Amino acid sequence: MSKSGNKKKYFLAVLAGLVIGFSLMIAFNYMWVNSSKNESCMACHFHPESDASWKQSVHYNNESGVMTDCAACHLPPKGSFEYVKAKTLTGVKDLWSYMTKKTEEVDWDSKGELEYAQQIVYNESCKACHVNIFPAGMSDEGVTAHLYYDDNEEKLNLQCISCHLDVGHYNPNYKHSALTEAPVTEDNGIVYEAATPVTEFANFVETIPGTGASISMIAIPGGSFKMGSSEKEPFHKADEAPQRNVTVSPFFMGELEVTWDQYWTFYKETMSEGRTSPETIYANNQREDCDAVSGPTPPFGFPDQGWGMGERPAITMTHYAAETFCQWLTLKTGKKYRLPTEAEWEYAARGGTETPYYFEGNPKKFSDEGFWSGLFGADTTVINSYVIYAHNSKNRTQEPSKVKANPFGLKNMLGNVMEYCSDYYAEDAYSKMQDGAVNPTGPASGDEYVVRGGYYVDDAANLRSAARRKTEHDAWLKTDPQNPKSIWWYSDIKGIGFRVVCEVPEGVAAN
User: Fold this and answer.
1) N or C: which end of the chain has fewer CB within 10 A?
2) Cα separation, 365 vs 361, whole angstroms
3) pTM of the model
């Protein structure tokens, strides 16, 4: 073959390569661009409410007429390696889910919660669009909040979505402003004239005078038990040891965690003005002759998260708010109400059992942790009947009717929401406690309080009767922009609540 023929073939091969390469580049670019369009997003994320809620949101329906696309929020800003990385990984994940998952089996409600939104909304994208975070016409409250964000974004890892959850998908149950009045609760048409007299050590229903609220109280017989867990118990932690023999006196305990109906009754009777200083409130409530407590200021947003009220547990209140509720209940009924000690709480939770839970079962089988559970899945057949946790909660609290009671007749002692105890937390509290202690009350001082029982997002490993936790006061107020921060409501924890204890009145024989 002549040299000219070889050159011609070489030229044609190069030309063909360029044409094919250019065609592939055009095709790839077409796919790359179009896969970020709203139509492509909706093709995989087929949820009937996602499109409708987006079109109702301010990102679609606003005065300026500017429409914000899906990719503008759910991918980092264009032109960065992070954009390419996130788009590729998201695309692979979405395609896999589209091919392997059934749409009707996806828990769409939990996908709308803040915890999930923080994983798929990029703060850099928010800032790329909203360059000026102090626009004309912003309210004083907005300026205060954005100044707080500006000063603490990096230090506290603040995210725009934490306060603006509904800007991309409208949610009628979400509110980003202070409540002006207590939500309307179910009116049973009853107004109790007096508290329930207690003449014997037996279960009773406390009626709160001047209101229609009542609290079912369970008589907990006194006794001795082993507090904590041994090193042999699966998922044992150091702060649960050493085990101690502890004795507690008889007491009454709320059958349920304090409900929204009960808590809003307290709120309506004691609500403080938002401008009342914490010092003024502390001073009033600490008076020995206090005959009317100063209660919570209005919460910011819907503290029930739009999940429902009624008999669901009241949540997001601080330890001080829970103590003030008990103080109010004491004044209203003439009985001594308070938070349980940690020893009382564990004794009541165990209900006479010495096993990891108050029902039969091995934590290793119930937990998602470990090789076998990862391979075959956790056993949920028994625990589902007693506990609201990661496998059955749908990422929210549930009503007490969903679970069975423990041997003492108490519901939700494990799961649903963490419950405050009166004790300060110390990791070495048990090592400093005497074996055979009677009615221990924990350390004399501390920075955080004990919380028990675990909550709705927890794995079974953290729901054992002996499992301990502590409050995280500063972290739970991370996105609260107020100065001073609220002493009544937490902004960054949903799974916290409490139940009350009533001391046995004098003259009533117990045991």
Assistant:
1) N
2) 8
3) 0.89
